[in-house]
Amino acid sequence: MSDTPWIVAAEIAPPVQRARRWLAPPTIGRGLLAWVVPALLLVFWQIASSVGWISDTVLPSPLKVAQAGWTVAKSGALFENVEVSFLRAMAGLVVGGAIGFAFGLANGVSKLSEHLTDSTLQMLRNIPHLSLIPLVILWFGIGEEAKLFLVALGVFFPIYLNTLHGIRTIDPQLLEMGKSYGMTNSMLFMRIILPGAMPSILVGLRFALGIMWLTLIVAETIASQSGIGYMAMQAREFLQVDLVVFSILIYALLGKLADSVARFLETQCLKWHPSFQSGPRA
Amino acid sequence: MSFADTSAPAEARAAPLPDFEAQFRAPPASGVSLTLRGVVKAFGPRTILRDIDLHIPGGQFVAIVGRSGCGKSTLLRLVGGLDQSTQGQIVFGEGEPRTAGESPVRVMFQEPRLLPWANILANVEIGLGAQRKTKLARERARETLHAIGLEERGAEWPSVLSGGQKQRVALARALVSRPRLLAFDEPLGALDALTRIEMQQFLEKIWLRDRFTALLVTHDVMEALTLADRVLMIENGSITLDLAIDLPRPRRRGSVDLALLEERILKRLLRDETNSPEYAI
Ligand SMILES: Nc1ncnc2c1ncn2[C@@H]1O[C@H](COP(=O)(O)OP(=O)(O)O)[C@@H](O)[C@H]1O
Ligand SMILES: [Mg+2]
Asked: Is the CB–ligand 1 distance for residue B84 below 6 Å?
């Protein structure tokens, strides 16, 4: 956990969208092009399973996985478990994110607060949060609190560190400008500090979303009685490999969804940022 | 610091709160005078400005030249209220206590310092301070944007502007509240030669229109001579040259008068460099 590169300079973090490549694909169908390789893989997988190169007990064919998915979807179990996992993820994100954000703001704005808490937090950061699972189970059992605690702890650090980093790297010249134009502290915060830190905060959010799912997968697999991870573990007990694979795919889908939401937030909040503008830069 | 409105009618001065509408409708108030008495500024053990006495009448255009590191910016920051002097007094107007309202001074920096996340119009509106929400304020911001020739681009982000255009927006932001003293710290230093001449002409035009007191720090002696009524030189923490430039405007850059003056000032700056060893402060 401690070697995760959580802080990424905000300038390089946004995707380089307009990088010129020498072999640019034709504009039409460029979106489709991205799907060619996955589609081919899927076809190959199906063929390999049908021909018998891959045993069903190792990796069932895509069709079988889809069938398993359809069955749990019809029974309602899928929706129930996805909902449970989703709510857990969100609750952890909101709790851990809010606390991390609050600490990041406080320590970015106030030297006193920073001296008081930053070094402690930096020390705690070195504890891999997943290593706390046995302890958390002892504390909370396998109830909701355990998952909430782990997810919140996991998302806390990326949000905290990136918020703090964003505030620390705000151009002091802009702050001086604001003061010389008579801005009050709250105006300085709303008009300069918060928007200035936003690129970094959103980078933190993206890291946090990744950690959120990862934590939840582990927690649900080890200590849970509902959720997607539990569904997968149940399926394993009954050797339903197709359902296990399907659960994994659901996790992937949810992760992708979270990332898309983060990207959408970036394009909405950072419209002013040159890397998110269309057209040539002046 | 104190500020007294010497040119406005007495009723306006007596009013407890400034009437914002009237302020906008009225013709621009003329520049406020500036007096420095025994101003000293030290950073730790190093005294940068020693005992500066200076009076600038309202509406005058004063340029400050001097070698890099001589304390020009430091002086400007004291006037702009960005730093506090170690000793001495800085007085605006004729020494009466300052009435309610905002500082009569605006500072324009070498960098545009525009907020990248606010569009161009919003950046200009920052100059209006607390009143920026009123309808008249928006009108005034648009008007100022028009004056700098960027009226159509109010909704765009600052990042799409060229360096000269950004600096013009910064100028609009400084001008929009009709400051009575405008302090510039090498505002054109980062621009290319052509844009710079254009901006100088523009600055002169605006100053002739609004007649604020102008305090321009520059390292370009010719720039100082084309624009200023008076050129000050700072050396070793004191004002060592106070030269009135009595030439008609607009001044031609290539004129003999300007060239002679330029030579005189440059000689002074250079002689200083060859004669005084590094360790003498
Ligand atoms: N905040 C500061 N702390 C310490 N020294 C400073 C500070 N600001 C300026 N100085 C020093 O004061 C001197 C004058 O600086 P400045 O006024 O910026 O010069 P310039 O004439 O080039 O604008 C320099 O030697 C600089 O190092
Ligand atoms: Mg300077």
From this structure: no
